[in-house]
Amino acid sequence: MMLRFRSALLALLLALLLVTSAWTETVMVPTRDGTKLATDYYVPATGGPTFPVIMSRTVYGRGGKGMQDLGRAFNERGIAFVSQDSRGRGNSEGTDPCFADDGWGERQDGVDSVRWIRSQPWSNGKIGTWGGSALGITQVLLAGAEPSISAQSIVVACSSLYGQLSYQGGVFRKALCEGWLTLQNSKHIIDLWHSHPTYDEFWKGLNSELRAQQVTAPGFHVGGWFDLFNQGTINNFVCRQYHGGEGARGNQKLVMGAWVHGIKQEIGDLKLRDNFNFKLSEYERRFMDYWLKGEQNGIMDEPAVHYYTLGDCTDPNAPGNEWRTAQDWPPLPINETPYYLTEAGSLTTEPLTADSKQVTFTYDPADPCPTHGGQNLLLPAGPFDQRKVSGHKDVLKFATPSLDQPLEITGAVRVELFVSSDAADTDFIAKLVDIYPDGREILMLDNIQRVKFRNGFEKAAPLPPGEVGKITIDLWSISLIFNTGHQVGLQVSSSNYPRFEKNPNTGEDLPREGNLEVAHNSVHLDKTHPSALILPVRVK
Hints:
Largest sheet: 10 strands, mixed
Number of strands: 25
CATH architecture of the largest domain: 3-Layer(aba) Sandwich
Distance between the termini: 81 Å
Low-confidence stretches: 1-21
CATH class of the largest domain: Alpha Beta
Radius of gyration: 25 Å
CATH superfamily of the largest domain: Alpha/Beta hydrolase fold, catalytic domain
Helix content: 10-25%
CATH topology of the largest domain: Rossmann fold
Strand order of the largest sheet: 1-2-4-3-5-6-9-10-13-14
Mean pLDDT: 95
Strand content: 25-35%
Number of domains: 2
């Protein structure tokens, strides 16, 4: 009797399991060149017989518990899920090309996978894509090649691999690229990327912004001010929202939080307010269900943009530290206000009147200024206090007087410098810092510019030694209120290592044994050469 009871109970549990669990299978999906990609698919056990599908193409392994849990969660919503190892990764055939075969090139693995899904008896033709970071990049590239995608959820992904992943300001992003590729057992890509230091046809094939008009997919874009793809997330939204093809244009959503490459409250040397989080999973669910299932949940009637405005994290009465909404990006009327650098180390909105002023420092690539925070992945990331490194011999510091009222900036920040050097080539770094009343120099944004690429990244144009040239350092974007009593700070250097590869000062693209030379670099600060920090100040 007990045996019959156990058998009946087991049968009941199995029946319940069949009702609630997914049907899962692994197949090798062929691509146009015959390479086969390891693919798992999860189909709801009830409903159908056809379902909308969400696909995730990954470099990190298609079959882990996280992907299995994701498949079950999508199945519970009546959505089939496809998880695939990209070429050369996991159990997929081929050699890892690191995104080169994920877009619109000779091999189009993402497109081939979508067409395979559409041919399956359990697919109703509505296909969305999902994922963050590398999984977001595969989506971004796919959208420029495949016009039938119904929706995309893209978290922390770049829009152009040259300017936002491998080379920023024409400088190799050393710690990120070498570290990440080594961890992925794809060190062969390092030499490949080293061999393309200019923005050439190789990189144009990995710039989704050039394909915006071909994109037809609605998209949900998530990024963070301290994320390594800060500007890429914004660019993905902007180019599709305003310049995308039919279906994409006007159907994008953007969420920008005060986050690093992940969502957490304590970042760098700051602790965010308790409201730092955002209900991303709920928002994403509504967005995807609207476009894949036709669920009328009101998501597209809501503002297109949600963004977090930072403020003084230690003063409970400080302005900022709040979520805001807008219909567009940029979200507010702004006045691009120049803060001129002076020989005395100040930042002023008054035009410079001196005839000839400059400050000079020595940059030795054998002793570069070390990285301390910023938009990193494998290095400590976020808004760290720069006093640990700002005393380095190749760092110039500038600051406004203490503010007598809050100063709000929202949008793109840049630095325009008039520079010269006695070297064949060199770099200039800029850091935007929020100087707290207690002296902390909290890093908010930073970037770099190689002098020989001051006129563009397609072709080097060396600046003759001693000659003055203008460079623009794009610091990307932020929304921030400098509180009363704070100072706006700018730090200028020629190194930030190993976040960025050090310039050997010889004109060569990369350092090597025996090619490091000392440079004496100057920033010019006079009425003819008005070097300035340009801030997007909110119009009141």
